[in-house]
Amino acid sequence: MMNNTLKAILLTSMLPFAANAAQELTPWYVGGGLGVNNYEPNCDMKTMKTCGKDDPYAWDVFGGYLFNDYFGVELGYRDLGRAEWVDYANKMNDVGAKGLSLGVVGFWPIANRWSLSAEAGAMNYLLSNNKEYGSEYYSDSGIAPYIGAGIGYNITENLKLQAKYRRYENLDEDKWNTLAMESNYWGLELSYRFGTPAAVVAPIVAAVVVDSDNDGVTDDMDQCPDTAANHKVDAKGCTIYTETTEQRDLGSIQFANNSSVVKTESFERIEKLATYMNKNPESTVLISGHASDVGKADYNMALSDKRAKAVAKILVEKYGISQDRVEAKGFGITQAVIQGNSAEANKANRRIEAHVTGVKREALIK
Question: What does the alpha-carbon distance between residue 270 and residue 274 come to, in Å, rounded to a whole number?
Fold first, then answer.
């Protein structure tokens, strides 16, 4: 026991080294996203006469570095799609913003594999207007702050899917002072974090050996957990029994002269015999029939056999005792309890005896 405890302590003390030896996820990740974008105001600026057909589909690619599991920095390139309108000179305008972004992002685990995120940063945008299908193209650039929020699910330790919302401010065209826009983006992003998840090393704890019933067999192997402490048990913790055969005489059932009909008052005694045999399913019974010393010996032998079989029939048919557990045999006048043929002797000898043989189980004591 002392040696096992010492081994467990030594193995447990090595766990930090085992965990560090496993390669972990790196802080670096990359990803990309697709979504839709809506520029604001939408066809209500002073330069806008009527709306055209927008191309709101947006996309981005990015890479990030995590300082820990909750906080990191992200660099990306984003295209926010395009919007069309007709100005008061009846010329088609086609505007879109794209550029590099840099921001910080935070994560909050909320459930198994799920997390919330929040971000803030700035986009170095290029706002381009392909006016009249590019014939009067002009552009301007600037810095647009943004904030965002999302919910993510780790498909694996490396792969995460996130639903994102971002709000961009001050997407302005300042050269000619024709545009001052904001933007709302909704999309899905898939990211991959480099590295291999650290192997989960289960703590090695010394097993506590318990023998609740003190029988010498531990609980993990004990199939009979409530044996008495002084009983000898087998490898499964169950009491070892010895079996001895015992014989019981449950008394006599008497008959009228020259009759094999069982008297009504005898049924109570037969029922007690059946009850005992049902409670002791390994028991068997010999129904022995006897006669008085009146008349011929051969006749008395046959009569005693009929008496025995009459009682056996009641046991089998009325009380359900299996036939193979019941034996009936006549002995005639060969086993008289009172010798002679006096009235007293004849009454005592006209009888049935039930001899029950059972198996008695006794626990071996230590």
Answer: 6
What is the enclosing helix (H) or strand (E) of 312?
helix 297-317
Reduce the DSSP state of residue 284 to 3 states and report it: strand
Mean pLDDT along residues 66-70: 92
Using the predicted structure, report yes or no on whether residue 218 has a pLDDT greater than 60. Answer: yes
- Residue 134 Ramachandran class (φ > 0 left, ψ -120 to 50 alpha, else beta): left
Radius of gyration for the chain, computed over Cα atoms and rounded to the nearest angstrom = 50
Size (the chain), residues? 366
H/E segment holding residue 188: strand 179-195
Distant-in-sequence, close-in-space partners of 31: CB < 8 Å, separation ≥ 6 = 61, 62, 63, 64, 160, 189, 190, 191, 192
Contact 314, 270 (CB under 8 A): yes
Taking a C-beta distance cutoff of 8 angstroms, is the pair 244, 324 a contact? no
Q: Tell me which residue of 63, 57, 67 sits closest to 76, measured CA to CA.
A: 63
DSSP 40-77: ES-S-STT-SEE---B-EEEEEEEEEESSSSEEEEEEE
Q: What is the pLDDT of residue 122?
A: 97
- Give CA–CA dist 33/75, Å, rounded: 13
Pairing of strands 57-66, 50-51: unpaired
More confident residue, 250 or 334: 334
Cβ–Cβ under 8 Å, residues 131 and 91 = yes
Average pLDDT over residues 136-159: 93
**Average pLDDT estimate for 128-136:** 86
Lowest mean pLDDT among 103-107, 212-216, 314-318: 212-216
pLDDT confidence of residue 210: 84
Q: pLDDT at position 176, please?
A: 79
Is the CB of residue 304 less than 8 Å from the CB of residue 254?
Answer: no
Q: What mean pLDDT, rounded, does the chain reach?
A: 83
Question: What is the rounded distance in angstroms from the CA atom of residue 208 to the CA atom of residue 4?
Answer: 10
